[in-house]
User: Fold this.
Amino acid sequence: MANSKFPLQFRSGVAPLIERLIQEKQAVGYKCEVGALALERLDRFLAKKGLTQCELPRELALKWLAKRPHESAANHGYRGQTLRRLAIFMVKQDYPAYVPDRHLMAKGGDGGFTPRILTHAEIRRVLHVADHIKPSGHSPLRHLVMPEMFRLLYGCGLRVSEALHLKVGDVDLERGVLRLRETKFGKDRQVPPAISLVQRLQRFDQEFGRRPASAYFFPNVRGGPWHISSVYSFYRKLLARSGISHAGRGKGPRVHDLRHTFAVHRLLHWYREGAELDAKLPVLATYMGHLDILGTQHYLHLTAELFPEITSRSQAHFGDVIPRRVVS
Assistant:
C-alpha cells in the first residue's frame, strides 16, 4: 500500500492506520517526511515479523523497543517515540495496541541531552561580549549582525533557522512584529519582540539603508543568509570570552539552548508575577511555534527543577501538568 504523498510502501497489518496517521498529520500542516520514513521502517519490521492483523502486540512492540548494539540513544529514543505515537493513535481508533511507558524512551528524542539553561547573569555577559566584537576582513558585518541575532534568539525564543531566513519584508519595524514563514511545522506565525528589541532592530536596519523586501534581514558579506555553522562557531567564541565553559561537541551549551532558556525564563517571570503557569502554556506554545502544548510542557519540568521554590506551588495548583518524577 503506497502513501499518496510519499513514495513509501506499507505492508504490515497496521498499514492502513499508518497511512491514516500520516494523512492526519499532513492535514494539520505537519511536515512529516521524516516521520513517514520512521513509520515505514517500523512497518517493515512488523511485516517481517509476520504481523497481518491490525493490532500492535506487546511482544512485537518490546522487540522493536530493544536497544540495538552500538545504537545511539537518540536513534533508540526516536524509534520508541515512533512506536508510541502509532500505538496511541491505534488505541484512539479502537484497535488493540501496546502503548509503552514514556520512561522506556527517557533518553531518546534529543539523544538524552539536557538543555543548558543560562542564568540571567550569563545571558548579560554573552550579549555584552557580542556588543564589543570587531569586524574582520573575513566577516566585516559580524559586529552588526551577531549582537542582534543572539538577542533575537534569546529574546523571542526563535529557532536558529527562523532567524537566519528572516527577510526584510518579514520584519515590520513600525508595528513591531516578525512574520516567520514556513517554520518547522509548515505554518506561518507572527512574533512581537519586546519594544527595546524592536528599537535595536530599527537601528540595525538603518545601518543598511533602503533594502528590497526580498533581502535577508541578517545578511552575510555577499547578501545571502549566514550559514548555521558560522553562528554555532561564533557562539562558542562568545561563551569562551564570557567565561562559560563548553563541554565539547554534542554536550553544549548549544545555540538552540537559547530558545530553551527563553522559555524557562519566561515561565519563571510569569510565576513571579503570580500567573497560573498551566494557563500560560498555550500562549507560550503559540509564541514559540509548537504544534501543541505537549512540546511546551517540558519547560515546566525544567523550570521547576532549576527553581525549586516553585515546586510546592506547581504541585498544589497544576500537579497534573508537572507530574512527580517516577523513580524506578
